[in-house]
Structure formats: structure tokens, C-alpha cells
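Re: that backbone. C-alpha cells:
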């Protein structure tokens, strides 16, 4: 793909493929990191296809996933190969260390992306179930692609599902900043990851506020 063609493609709203779940696409990113190494060398799509964990997928399926991942800032395309961006490599590193931090990293990476702004616009009006949100986001494209996108939004902490089964935005204060949890418990990474969705979001947002304030304080310099 030429640079002009890639720029034109990236200007569109690219939906994730329905041929791979969100989890499988994350595994594809992890595998690309393993094969490409710390220098993020390009990896042939056929090689990724042959080494996918648990079950091999076709080269065409791997290829179909790259558009959304490229637009999301996680991979770069090189004809019949892809490489990870610095952000993609960091995501895989965090996934290996702490899944909660990986999800928060992706939330911050995508905070201005079209998928985030579109979901925010829809869910500020009212909560929606997964199918309704998927249908709104995917437009004329198959619902299955919209459902995979909703799974990505959930993984990236952009939306969360309440006990009533409806999707909402994480709770925010009127000034637009996330509302902190009441106290920050000292917890191991696996304990944080095992929290119910509502509590998980609150704790992650509270930690984000704390870290942001520390970065801006003289003591953090």
C-alpha cells in the first residue's frame, strides 16, 4: 500500500474485523511483538498466521485485522507484513505485567479516537445494550463488526457494563474529570483485575487522577 493510499484509508472510520475476536486480535499483537522483537521489526502476515496461539488463522484473516489496529495506533503496515508501533509494543509489555494497567494505557491512547468520541456521544444520551451500541457504531456494516468494536471499547475502559446489562460511560464529575474512588486500597494486580467492572473502573480512574496529580506536583519532580 502506498503512503497516499494508507493515509486515505486512515482518514476513514475503520471497524475491526469480525473474523477475529478482540481477544484474538490482542493475541495477534502479542505474537507480533514476540516475532518482531524489541526493535519492532516487520513480521510477515503468513508468519503471524502460522504461529497464532491455540488455533491457526488464515493469512487473509490476519490481514483483515490490520486496518483497525493501524488506525488505533498499534501497528504499521508494510505490504505483506506488519510491525508494532511504540504504543503497540508498550501495550504488549503491560499485558504481560499487569492487565489492568494495559487496559488503562489503551484508554488513554484512544481518548481522542473516533471510537471513543462516537461512544461518548451516544452514551451521554442514554445507556444502551451491546447490540444497540454496536448497531449505532457500525452503520451500514455488519453488526458482528460493531459487536467486536464494543468488546474493544470495554477492554479499553471506554465503556462499562452495569449490573442491568446496559453499557455506560465511566462516571465523571461535572468538570469532566473522572470521579475518584473513596480511598485507594493497596491491592495486588491480580486482585485489581478480579474486581467487578464498576469497582474496577472507579479504582483505575482514581489511580489515574493520583498519578496525574503527582506528576504535576513539586515532590514528583
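Recovered sequence:
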Amino acid at each position: 500500500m502506498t503512503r497516499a493510499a494508507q493515509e486515505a484509508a486512515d482518514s476513514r472510520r475503520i471497524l475491526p474485523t469480525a473474523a477475529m475476536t478482540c481477544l484474538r486480535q490482542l493475541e495477534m499483537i502479542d505474537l507480533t511483538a514476540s516475532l518482531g522483537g524489541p526493535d519492532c521489526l516487520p513480521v510477515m502476515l503468513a508468519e503471524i498466521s502460522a504461529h497464532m496461539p491455540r488455533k491457526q488463522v488464515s493469512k487473509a484473516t490476519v490481514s483483515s485485522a490490520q486496518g483497525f489496529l493501524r488506525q488505533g495506533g498499534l501497528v504499521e503496515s508494510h505490504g505483506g507484513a506488519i510491525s508494532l508501533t511504540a504504543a503497540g509494543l508498550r501495550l504488549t509489555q503491560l499485558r504481560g505485567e499487569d492487565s489492568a494497567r494495559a487496559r488503562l494505557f489503551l484508554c488513554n491512547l484512544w481518548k481522542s479516537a473516533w471510537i471513543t468520541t462516537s461512544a461518548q456521544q451516544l452514551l451521554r444520551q442514554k445507556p444502551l445494550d451491546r447490540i444497540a451500541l454496536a448497531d449505532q457504531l457500525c452503520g451500514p456494516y455488519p453488526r458482528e463488526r460493531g459487536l467486536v468494536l464494543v468488546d474493544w471499547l470495554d477492554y479499553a475502559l471506554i465503556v462499562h457494563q452495569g449490573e442491568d446489562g446496559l453499557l455506560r460511560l465511566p462516571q465523571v464529575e461535572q468538570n469532566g474529570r473522572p470521579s475518584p474512588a473513596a480511598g485507594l486500597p493497596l491491592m495486588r494486580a491480580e486482585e485489581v483485575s478480579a474486581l467487578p467492572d464498576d469497582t474496577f473502573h472507579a479504582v483505575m480512574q482514581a489511580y489515574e487522577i493520583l498519578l496525574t496529580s503527582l506528576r504535576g506536583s513539586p515532590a514528583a519532580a
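The beta strands are 43-44, 75-78, 81-84, 160-161, 167-168. The chain has two domains: 3-92, 98-215.
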